[in-house]
Amino acid sequence: MASGKDPVDYTFGRPVQAGEHTYDWYRKTHADEAAKRFGMDPKAVGDGMDTWHWWTGVDNSGFWAKLASLTGNPHQDLLGVKVDFLRMLTSVPRSKRFEVLGTLNDPDTVAADGPDQYGLTIDRMKAGSLTWDPEVFGYSSGVIGLQLYKNKAFEPTKWSLKKYLADASSVQPPYRVGMSCALCHIGFNPDHPPKNSSEPAWDNLASNPGNQYFREGMLFGYNLPRTSFIWQYLAHQEPGTSETSRFPSDYINNPVEIYPLYRVLPRLKEASVERITPAQRDMLHAMYRQVGLPDNFAGGALGGTAARPTIKTPHVLADGADSLGLLIASCRVYVNEGSDFQGWIQTWPLDPWDPVASIRRKFATREFDIVGKYSRDPNSFWMQTAKRMPNMATFLMSYDSYPLADAVESVQSGPATKNGKDYLTTDPSVLRRGKIAFADSCAACHSGKAPNPLPTDAAARRNAWREFVLRDDFLKDNVLSDDRRYPVSELGTNAARGLLTNSMAGSTFGQMSSLTFKQLKAGKMQLHDYDPSGRPVNLYNPLTGKYDNTFTGNAAYYRTSTLVSIWSHGPLLHNRSVGAVTLDPSVAGQVACYQDGMSKLLWPERRLGVRSIKVTTEESTLPDVFALMKRQLPEFANLPALDVSLLTVPKGTSINLIMNVHPRNVKSVLQAYVNGVLQGQPRSQFARLQRTNMDKGRRAMLARLLAVSTCPDFIEDKGHYYGRHLSDGDKQALIAYMKTF
Question: Between residues 421 and 633, which one has the greater pLDDT?
Fold first, then answer.
């Protein structure tokens, strides 16, 4: 290869045709509207949109390339799953991606006519659609949120696609793939859904509601056999959720709704004062100065005293862990996408590139050091991203809502077609009844505004809320959330996400949460399920089929989710467990999903209950991680006959019974299996007994898994029983009123 020559030649597809809207149109249209409506600087809005859509934290493509190399190496991969976006892009056709992965295709790209000069069948950007620097933002891969970067280490004479697919560590590919926020957060425009989900136009997309059809697990498991337990785990992740602790793992399977970002500007008024450390205050002050924010920045105003500093901040994550202001919260997202990955990986309890070292340090976690390291270097990836965050925040503040009244159906095929307004109730008596039901059962948490003063007497407080909700301006600039944390013991919802540990002291994002949050989490809380009358009972035990399991863990909290445009966001709850799953983005499909979710929310007896537990649909095989354990743990070295291929997971087994185990307990789980097989016989008999006593060994293993579970809370769709005691008429009126949100 000649010195200085670009090793990769990117080829564009057909030219942009007359009448086709491009990203440049989408960007300008929104920026101009933000300037007109909110008085915002259109240049700042446009720059923020570029960051939101295309920025990959400088170089998170390096992280994904490193993972592709590891998991594509048949001699190193422990799990048998290929975490390789380039492989996915050339394997899953554009016409099938929405169906298989739930990803959205970029309107500025077209399907490849055939393999390119590198043998890759990857979408091409339309000639004339690229309006940014590809060195900074890459080229669109065809999947919104996955950007292609020319690989400077690529050597054309050594390249072979066949060799790469056989062993991704054996040769450098022509492209690296980076991830932006857009992958999860850009969704179909609820008011203008596409006619063809695989070929949306820019008119059909919106940057802030989140992709409620995204099947994140299938992004990694699309090519696995259903008999693999890893496929079972990934396939059962709810569409429209993200498992943000999949890599810096807390060993609690806790996918959470991809949160819609509505009315960010009025939401800042709901900020809470939280205690922080002096070191955190000094870091924030220095970062604010470098990125041009004042100390009283509305997304994280510094206050208190030198000895007892505070920050006034809205909350971002479902459990309220992002409590160091919007600047830190935004930068954290890019770390979680792979930015500064060399340091990020070192914080994980289990380093997949060096599992032996992880075992030796007993899977200890470390903090990603923003206080002492990354924020101090103005050229670090962390700080390069931080400098982009003020404009990105401005961009996100430029969105309000998507009223059902404005929705236009995707298919206008005849007189029976309904638009959004046709689903709305116009009877003022029904709407008034719904407003009163909302005031009595919902508004105390699901309103960003409140009567002032709010009476302390219960009857007077109820009347004050009713009068307030009945006001004509109640919904104007209302975030429909008080942005407060509530304990799981009060909400009754599944606790998995609330038990998240990554923001605790000593863990990956420990420096990114407040003292207030850490003190809340330090408390203890017993988890419960609930009987048909709503009374707490012990947790359901999938091994006995009874409510006979007890568990006490660190306190778990959830902050109130917004109800803005809730008509377009079913299924409901933080884990999207209440309501039927549908891949129909039409107005009719969205309304039907909302109706089903609200019906089950307000009539809990209609929920799945125990049937909502994630279970394997087929007998499945476990990855052979035990081979490593045998090599590293002397107590198992003398069991050469320990054959993991015999240790299958029965159909109907709770997936989280296996997923919610910390690696430090794997040894005891393996020992339970061995003891179950031996049934008191000498270890020398293991080879003879393994097949005959396999079921006994498996039962012993599952029992041990339950005993050491990090979260034995299995029922997904429980809790949030507010409003269950309303009359049927009040419930129907409430459903009708909330459609107007």
Answer: 421
pLDDT > 90 in the chain, percent = 90
The rounded distance, in Å, linking the Cα atoms of 558 and 495 is 9
Q: Which two tokens stand for residue 576?
A: 């999207």
Beta bridge partners of 525: 553
Q: Give the three-class secondary structure for 549.
A: strand
Reference 243, options 271, 214, 269; nearest CA is 214
pLDDT at 629 over 80: no
**pLDDT level of residue 19 (50, 70, 90 thresholds):** very high
Handedness of CA 617, 618, 619, 621 (dihedral sign): negative
The average pLDDT across 584-591 equals: 96
Give ∠ CA 515-57-60 in degrees, rounded to 5.
105
Name which of 441, 445, 465 is nearest 453 in CA terms. 465
Q: Give the whole-angstrom CA distance, residue 49 versus residue 698.
A: 52
Q: Which residues contact 512 (CB under 8 A, 6 or more apart)?
A: 321, 322, 324, 328, 329, 332, 368, 370, 503
Q: What does the alpha-carbon distance between residue 230 and residue 121 come to, in Å, rounded to a whole number?
A: 27
Which residues, including other chains, have CB under 8 Å from residue 1's CB and lie 6 or more apart?
Answer: 7, 155, 156, 157
Q: Is 219 helix (H, G, I), strand (E, B) or coil?
A: helix
**pTM (two decimals):** 0.95
Q: Which amino acid is at 484?
A: R
User: Using an 8 Å Cβ cutoff, are 311 and 300 in contact?
Assistant: yes
Judge contact between 84 and 71, C-beta under 8 A.
yes
Given the structure tokens 């020398």, which residue do they identify?
Answer: 684
Please give the span between the terminal C-alpha atoms of the chain, in angstroms, as a whole number: 60
Rounded to whole angstroms, the Cα distance separating 711 from 659 reads 10
- Single out the residue of 442, 440, 398, 405 nearest to residue 422, CA to CA: 405
User: Is the pLDDT confidence value at 136 over 50?
Assistant: yes
3 state DSSP class of 447? coil
The DSSP code for 664 is: G
What residues contact residue 16 under an 8 Å CB cut-off, 6+ apart?
A: 22, 108, 126, 127, 128, 129
Higher-pLDDT residue of 732, 636: 732
Residue reference for tokens 């006994």: 696
* 410, 412, 414, 417: CA torsion to nearest 10: 40
Model confidence at 2: pLDDT above 70: no
Residue indicated by tokens 């030219």: 15
What is the rounded distance in angstroms from the CA atom of residue 42 to the CA atom of residue 608?
48
Cis amide prior to 453 (ω within 30 degrees): yes
* Residue 663 preceded by cis peptide, ω within 30: no
Distance CA 26, CA 74 (A): 43
Give residue-wise pLDDT tens across range 367-400: 999 999 999 999 999 999 999 999 999 999 999 9
What residues does each domain of the chain span? 13-214, 264-396, 626-651+661-707
Q: Is 316 in contact with 326 (CB distance < 8 Å)?
A: yes
**Tell me, what's the pLDDT at 49?**
98
Residue 139 has pLDDT above 60, yes or no: yes
* Contact assessment for residue 89 and residue 177, using Cβ atoms and an 8 Å cutoff: yes
Say if residue 335's pLDDT is above 50. Answer: yes
Q: Percent of the chain having pLDDT more than 70?
A: 98
Distance CA 654, CA 616 (A): 7
How far is 272 from 295, CA to CA, in rounded Å? 16
Q: What's the mean per-residue pLDDT of the chain?
A: 95
Residue type, 635: E
Sheet hosting strand 301-304, strand order edge to edge:
272-275, 309-313, 301-304
| Lowest-pLDDT range of 74-78, 103-107, 247-251, 463-467 | 74-78
With vertex at residue 63, the alpha carbon angle to CA 61 and CA 64, rounded to the nearest 5 degrees, is 65
Q: What are the tokens at 483?
A: 């942005």
Helix 587-602 vs helix 728-738: angle between axes, to the nearest 10 degrees? 140
